[in-house]
Design brief:
about 25% helix; two-stranded antiparallel sheet; elongated
Length: about 90
């Protein structure tokens, strides 16, 4: 995770990861609360956080969540491109 208090745009998170000493983060979101950003593939997004920040789009009956504000406009420019990779 980022050392920044606000996180980093398109950073990689380790939600639910197991630490080197074998401890698991029990406060981490569950898998069903997470999504992958379709624009920055590999970036994990907490759905509730993305919704609160307006970082999502509904397209063809499905909701897509974004890791940062820059991904929404990219998705809007060619949603079919990003849906195909999601």
């Amino acid at each position: 995770m980022s050392d920044s208090p606000t996180g980093s745009c398109c950073s990689t998170h380790s939600y639910g990861a197991v630490t080197a000493d074998g401890r698991r983060d029990l406060l981490a979101p569950s898998v069903d609360q997470l999504a992958e950003c379709p624009v920055m593939v590999g970036s994990t997004v907490v759905k509730a956080d993305a919704e609160a920040a307006g970082l999502f789009r509904d397209y063809e009956g499905a909701r897509y969540y974004f890791c940062c504000a820059g991904c929404g406009p990219r998705f809007d420019a060619d949603p079919a491109k990003y849906v195909a990779t999601a």
